Amino acid sequence: MGATIKDVAKLAGVSIKTVSNVLNGYPYLTPATKAKVQEAVAELDYRPNIAARNLRRGRTGIIALALPNMSTPYFAELAERIVREAEKRDLTVLIDCTAGDLEREKLVAEGFRNNLIDGVILQHWSLSERYLRSRPDKPPLVLLGEGPVRSADNVAIDSRQAARTAVTHLLDLGRRRIGVLGARGGRRRPGQPQAAGRRHEGYAEALDAYGIPFDPALVVAPPGAHGPEDVATGVDELLAKSPDIDAIFCLNDRVALGAIRALITRGVRVPSDVAVAGIDDIEAARLTTPSLTTVAPDKAGIARIAVEMLAERIAGTDRPARRVTADAQLIVRESTLGSS
Amino acid sequence: MGATIKDVAKLAGVSIKTVSNVLNGYPYLTPATKAKVQEAVAELDYRPNIAARNLRRGRTGIIALALPNMSTPYFAELAERIVREAEKRDLTVLIDCTAGDLEREKLVAEGFRNNLIDGVILQHWSLSERYLRSRPDKPPLVLLGEGPVRSADNVAIDSRQAARTAVTHLLDLGRRRIGVLGARGGRRRPGQPQAAGRRHEGYAEALDAYGIPFDPALVVAPPGAHGPEDVATGVDELLAKSPDIDAIFCLNDRVALGAIRALITRGVRVPSDVAVAGIDDIEAARLTTPSLTTVAPDKAGIARIAVEMLAERIAGTDRPARRVTADAQLIVRESTLGSS
DNA sequence: GATTGCTTCTATAACGTTGTAGACATCGTT
DNA sequence: AACGATGTCTACAACGTTATAGAAGCAATC
Q1: Residue A190: its pLDDT value, please?
Q2: Which of A72, A139, A142, B22 lies 20 to 30 Å (CA to CA) from residue A322?
Q3: Mean pLDDT of all residues in chain B?
Q4: Is the CB of A323 under 7 A from strand D?
Q5: Count of C-beta atoms within a 10 Å radius of residue B125
Q6: At B133, is the pLDDT very low, low, confident or very high (cuts 50, 70, 90)?
Q7: What is the DSSP string of B78-127?
Q8: In three state form, how does the secondary structure of chain A look?
Q9: Would you place residue A274 in the very low, low, confident or very high pLDDT band (cuts 50, 70, 90)?
Q10: What does the alpha-carbon distance between residue B181 and residue B189 come to, in Å, rounded to a whole number?
């Protein structure tokens, strides 16, 4: 069915290599032959077999994007930008959902689609520094998200700083009993983002800078998958342990939106009784009432840098792994400031 | 660097075909040779070159998923389910963002990644029946979303019915001045989902069934990309044209959430003054206050059927194009019923 | 007039896999 | 003892492309 380069060559009366040359912009070609070949290509509606080209070139132009999931708005928004950024460089993106599972992340990091992908962008949750250093096969890899990782290129916001910014904002508004809602602080567990710990650190730092002692009664990690119900029980726990709470810092926007809803349905006014801030700036943060104060990572920048670094690795640089810190900006909305 | 099948063969002391046989589960093999080969595979950490396999097999195990974008939560949620569904069938998903652009949709429908993808799942906005019928190259194709399309497999909810369900729900609650907010009704324009028209039809039908005359002053199409600001101006227009409005049916949840916010910030109470309903059941619909009444398409079902039909096409059936209607279920929440 | 250099093109060998066809045992059946 | 049937393995030719090496033509140089 599909015409091959051979058919084109025959029709144009040239060798297959000449056809290949025309297709690949080889400079030494008479306009006449070029025209003949292009005519034949059009005539047969010929399109190169990409599988064959991949085999021959040893490159595919495909990169894998591995994310824990895609229904989380932050990941979806990031994915979109990465796809568009990749497109600019003639790269196609193939999606893997890891569910944050260690084994699946390893598989991806080892480039299990041998010779099918040129490189990997991995939003990692569970990989350790030690593993990355000893990683068996090494396809070009760029990591998204934080972690104690210096063995691979890495782009992320400074989560500690972001948390500090958010909490400082709450402190500046006069809030003093600020709760934290999100993944467990302290020691990291597998299947749990490494950024969580750093966000807790940022929270503690901000308090410290204001001379406010850390109170464990203000820290709650909702169980399970951070679904709306999990978050609601987290809020209940927080309200029970610390009835005098006047703000909640949520480790991400999804949790924050759930928290706002839980607060309101329990008769707590936001922000007058309890202010809420998150991190991520997902679209829904602008759509709710009250809208959500949050720290917005420069998603476009993260995408651009990630693809850039990966492309560089694919091209075959051997510079040491680089860690890039992306911008993050406080966006004040109604959940801390009150309605406009 | 990577070991090839040849290396494995040499190490195991067998022919390359035998190695291939072991890898592909060819039945006639002594346990002894099988073991030898597997040992060699492990020893060399051999993994088949997928590019070569693709070329030889004429199949890649990759399907393209083309969506207008991925930051729209509905598409993101659908994409996730398709990825997971594909995974079950050992298919990998490659993402294309079409932006609803006609040319890009055509490109995808024609399988421009020749021999790189086995088939395409396309959430189409702009393709016409006529085009699909004359589509030059024909990779296996499954369409998502509605349209006057009988020339390719197709999965979608019945948008007219869904709209009717939502609007009937509003009518059952006693609302009589029900506005419509979303893409323009009437004639379809390129770059605009075909479902919009059908949702308008469903709206009209529901009114009709209650003997309520259609009033153009209740219909508004926000300009632009349905961003929160666009929706807000749409709400303003609606309030200006019909101050007695007591409900708004939004063509999708994203618009609905924007509308709720716009209403609340203008001092209109939801649902006591104006009830709001949408279609899609995106996650944020459960996170806002008030939560959003919506018609929930069976996303998992859509994903499953789409992948199923595509797999069937790839396997090479020649049954006529099939149109499957997915379930959609009314989910009543606070935006119409009041707080729980 | 042979040599060199430049342009233009071609024949052929890869790339790493799987399919075809057949070789060679082994076994039970006539 | 010969025969087909079955099990186990192998040599070799594809798949469709690009890279290498070099041929042929032609101009300018020694």
Answers
A1: 47
A2: A72
A3: 90
A4: no
A5: 23
A6: confident
A7: HHHHHHHHHHHTT-EEEEEE-TT-HHHHHHHHTTSSTTT-SEEEEE-SS-
A8: CCCCHHHHHHHHCCCHHHHHHHHCCCCCCCHHHHHHHHHHHHHHCCCCCHHHHHHHHCCCCEEEEEECCCCCHHHHHHHHHHHHHHHHCCCEEEEEECCCCHHHHHHHHCCCCCCCCCEEEEECCCCCHHHHHHCCCCCCEEEECCCCCCCCEEEEECHHHHHHHHHHHHHHCCCCCEEEECCCCCCCCCCCCCHHHHHHHHHHHHHHHCCCCCCHHHEECCCCCCCHHHHHHHHHHHHHHCCCCCEEEECCHHHHHHHHHHHHHCCCCCCCCCEEEEECCCCHHHHCCCCCEEEEECHHHHHHHHHHHHHHHHHCCCCCCCEEEECEEEECCHHHHCCC
A9: very high
A10: 17
Chain A and chain B share a number of CB contacts under 8 A equal to 165
- CB-strand contact B59/D, under 7 Å: no
A58-77 tens-digit pLDDT: 999 999 999 999 999 999 99
Binning pLDDT at 50, 70 and 90, where does residue A149 land? low
Give me the CA A10–C1' C16 separation in Å, rounded: 27
Number of Cβ atoms within 10 Å of the Cβ of B187: 7
* pTM of the model as a whole: 0.92
Over residues B137-194, the pLDDT tens digits come to 678 999 998 876 678 899 999 999 999 999 999 999 999 999 999 876 444 454 456 7
Q: Report the pLDDT value the prediction gives residue A186, as an integer from 0 to 100.
A: 43
Under 8 Å between Cβ of A65 and A79: yes
Q: With beta carbons under 8 A apart, name residues in chain B contacting A100.
A: none
Q: Does A90 touch chain B (CB under 8 A)?
A: no
Q: What is the pLDDT of residue A339?
A: 67
pLDDT of residue B125: 77
Residues of chain B above pLDDT 70, percent: 94
Distance of alpha carbon B231 from alpha carbon B212, whole angstroms: 26
**For residue A269, what are the CA distances in angstroms to A243, A278, A279, B272, B339?**
14, 17, 21, 19, 15
By mean pLDDT, which of A2-6, A63-67, A163-167 is the weakest?
A2-6
Distance CA B155, CA B161 (A): 15
Q: CA–C1' distance B46–C26 (Å)?
A: 33
